[in-house]
Amino acid sequence: MKTCIYTNTWYSSALLIFLAMATQFTATAQGKRITIIKGGDNGKYVTQQFLGCRPGDTLVIPAANNPYTYIAAEHLHGTKEKPIVIINGGGQVKLQAGFAFYNCTHVKLTGTGSKDKYGFRIEHPKGEGPGVDINKRSADIEVCYLDICKKTYGFWVKQEGSCADSLQAPNWVIDNISIHDNRIVNMRQEGMYLGSTDPNGLRNVSCNSAIIHPRPLRLGNIRVYNNIVDSTERSGIQLSCAAFGNNEIYGNRVTNAGWELSDVQGNGISLGGYTHAHVYNNYIKNTFALGILVLGSGYIVVDNNTIDSSGYLAGHVTPGMASIMVDTRTTSPVDSSRLLIHDNKLGLSTDANIHFYKTVNSYSKDNIIYNNTGSKKMAPGIYWKEHPTRGKLMSSEASMIPPVRKRYLAAAAVLLALLAAGFVVLRRRRARIA
């Protein structure tokens, strides 16, 4: 028997075209994968124009071509919905210099392209340079699952004052930077150097034979979480100039900070000028200097941190180091500092566990400090409450009076009140007799 097959050429052609279009649409929606091939110097400089990549594309760095010196990206721009992703492929990728991002937005660097916990390992034999450098007009960048060892800095995220107006505050904000789930060990300076420590532009910058004092770019919406930072010459995590948005530092483990043995460096976590942030659920132990240093302005919350051995590092003891130290700095325009500090577990320190200084008289009267372990010491002229919703306003003038003297003063006040009342009654009786 002969089998008949009905063929409609028009229908078949249309179906093939539809399937081809659907396949093309899927590839476009998901983005394409582009393999990065290193150059003769074992590194690669990439731009969007050179690669022909678009938002949603993935740039794959193959471990098979190890080792690499650097991957430098300039003018890579994804979108919020479709960031450009840079990922390892086929194992852990090893670099010496690390990654640099100049004028990049909506980019994600992730070491999740293999079974390795950290898909990228950055290590320099001489400990030079930052592991990840984010500067110029960059924003909306996420970096995760990197192992950074023996560098000067783990992360360098800032833009100092520059001759170009476009790189001066307030003309750009390095915004929406997320750094999480990385390991940073043996840094020659900070584990993370985020934002300039010269927020008022006091340093000289030479431009066309003229000296100017431009302000560095501000940061905003910085999130630093779930990182391991161990054995830094200076501070573990330092965030400055973060004047915008919601800045958070949480869930990090910072240990053995301050091997430079400088009492003005070597803090666990530092908040510099103009910075407001929420610092919580961090574990900080063995810092040559302070556990947490707060020099910022605006609303700052420090809660549920575990801090131990502030001022103690491998047999070195530094006097005057608090678990949490707070001070004020000059801001322009003037901004007040309002602190909420609560539920911190504070252990060994070489000073009071919480110590407030007052270099500039810019504290708000709405400070709240409660439910922390250990002691506190307040400079004169600072006000706070010891409960978030009730309780009277405390002042450091009253708190500086020794308890025994307070009792005598209270008793004297009561006695004076009784004497005054008796004097009034006596005058009334004399008036009636007269």
TrEMBL record:
Q: Name one Pfam family in it.
A: Beta_helix
Identify the keywords attached in UniProt to this record, alphabetized: Membrane, Signal, Transmembrane, Transmembrane helix
Q: Which domain of life is it from?
A: Bacteria
InterPro entries hit by this protein:
Beta_helix, PbH1, Pectin_lyas_fold, Pectin_lyase_fold/virulence
Start and end residues of each Right handed beta helix domain: 261-374
Q: Which residues form a coiled coil?
A: none
- For this protein, the parts annotated as crossing the membrane are 408-426
The signal sequence is 1-29
The protein, known as: Right-handed parallel beta-helix repeat-containing protein
Species source reads Deminuibacter soli
